[in-house]
């Protein structure tokens, strides 16, 4: 292959899925208990069990954008070797990382005018990005050209539907996403935010789910309502330290689609949503009605 397909660690793909499609994943930094860590798909610097265990203890976690030098180094390694690069990662609606990437790419294009560098705003978040990358990775494995891959990503990125249910209201409060009062009343009333992603790649609070028993039926309902050609497509389930919920959701939708992949939410997104989050990702029509 004369080009490399790249994304970043916010995609939350497992090491197994990354290896399957041959995508290169740029690690992302997070800070916990006064120390800095890089999150790789194999969680080599901190396991997810340790990360979520720390969150539950109240240990603060913060995330950092990929900086200019990291992008330059990652891309230049391949450009020097005579390979072109295509990258799609964390969207502009969630982070300034994409704009930093563009700055690095503009400079690299001057240095390597004979090489092609394509950067695409995914407009997809977390496992939604992972889902987009996984589908694109299947095409990459087939050997399509870099321009054909770019067109494929552009054509389907707004068809990626995300539905997340957040369990840890305390983590949302610590991150400034909701007030202390809202967190207290939400916990008391067993209310959980239902979140989706708009066409700008922004996380949108679409509705509220009352009671844990309604989480999985709600996610399954949105799959059936918004999915296109479900029988012939795959569905991705993602969870933040909630394997039991992921397996139950898989059980509920089994047989309705061609295949189901399960991914873990890593520290980049887990810092903001906390443990317990459950998500379903599929191709369809982005419908922001609860």
What does this structure look like?
The chain has 290 residues and is α/β, with parallel strands linked by helices. Helix content is 40%, strand content 25%. It has a six-stranded mixed sheet, sandwiched between helices. α1 packs parallel to α5. The radius of gyration is 19 Å and the shape is globular.
What percent of the residues sit in helical stretches (DSSP H or I)? Answer: 40-55%
What best-fitting shape do the alpha-carbon axes yield?
Answer: globular
Largest sheet: 6 strands, mixed
Strand residues, percent: 15-25%
Mean residue pLDDT: 90
Layout of SSEs?
Elements: E1 3-8, H1 15-21, E2 24-26, E3 28-32, E4 35-39, H2 48-56, E5 61-63, H3 68-80, E6 84-89, H4 97-111, E7 117-121, H5 127-142, H6 146-156, E8 160-165, H7 169-174, H8 180-188, E9 191-197, E10 203-210, H9 215-226, E11 234-239, H10 243-253, E12 259-264, H11 267-273, E13 278-283
Parallel strand pairs: 1-2, 1-6, 6-7, 11-12
Antiparallel strand pairs: 3-4, 3-5, 8-9, 8-13, 9-10, 11-13
Helix pairs in contact: 1-5, 3-4, 5-6, 9-10
Features:
40% helix, four-stranded parallel beta sheet, globular, alpha/beta, 290 residues
């Amino acid at each position: 292959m004369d080009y490399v397909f790249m994304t970043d660690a916010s995609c939350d793909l497992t090491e197994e899925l990354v290896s399957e499609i041959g995508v290169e994943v740029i690690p992302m930094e997070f800070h916990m208990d006064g120390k800095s860590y890089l999150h790789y798909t194999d969680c080599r610097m901190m396991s997810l069990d340790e990360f979520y265990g720390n969150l539950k203890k109240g240990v603060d976690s913060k995330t950092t954008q990929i900086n200019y030098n990291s992008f330059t180094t990652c891309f230049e390694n391949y450009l020097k070797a005579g390979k072109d690069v295509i990258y799609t990662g964390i969207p502009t609606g969630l982070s300034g990382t994409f704009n930093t990437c563009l700055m690095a790419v503009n400079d690299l294009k001057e240095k390597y005018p004979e090489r092609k560098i394509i950067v695409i705003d995914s407009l997809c978040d977390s496992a939604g990005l992972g889902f987009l990358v996984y589908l694109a990775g299947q095409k990459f494995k087939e050997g399509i050209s870099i321009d054909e891959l770019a067109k494929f990503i552009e054509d389907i990125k707004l068809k990626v539907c995300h539905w997340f249910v957040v369990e840890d209201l305390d983590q949302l409060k610590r991150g400034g996403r909701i007030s202390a009062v809202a967190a207290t009343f939400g916990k008391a009333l067993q209310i959980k935010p239902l979140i989706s992603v708009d066409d700008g790649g922004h996380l949108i609070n679409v509705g509220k789910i009352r009671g844990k028993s309604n989480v999985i039926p709600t996610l399954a309902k949105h799959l059936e309502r918004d999915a296109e050609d479900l029988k012939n497509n795959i569905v991705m389930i993602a969870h933040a330290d909630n394997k039991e919920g992921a397996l139950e959701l898989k059980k509920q939708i089994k047989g309705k689609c061609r295949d189901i992949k399960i991914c873990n939410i890593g520290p980049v997104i887990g810092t903001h949503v906390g443990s317990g989050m459950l998500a379903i990702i599929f191709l369809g029509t982005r419908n922001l009605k609860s």
